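Structure catalogue
Derive tokens from sequence
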Amino acid sequence: MLAHAVRSRVIPPERRKLVTRTNGGVLPTLLVDGYVAGVWRPAGKGIEVAAFHPLPGHGAGTRGRPGLPVPRD
């Protein structure tokens, strides 16, 4: 994502602020159909996902709510 010539193709400018930090660091991103749909972080034995909008197949309850555990295999 950092090296993409036109970043707005994969993440809208208003969402970029949610994944990039002032020091230039970028949070791990969740991609859906090639577009940034949220961020994730390690949590216990799995990951925690914070989606920017409802994810396909996961209902409206995932919208922007951290704490959705996704087990790792």
The beta strands are 29-32, 35-43, 46-51, 68-71. The CA atoms of residues 20 and 26 lie 4 Å apart. The chain has one domain: 7-71. The chain has one helix and four strands.
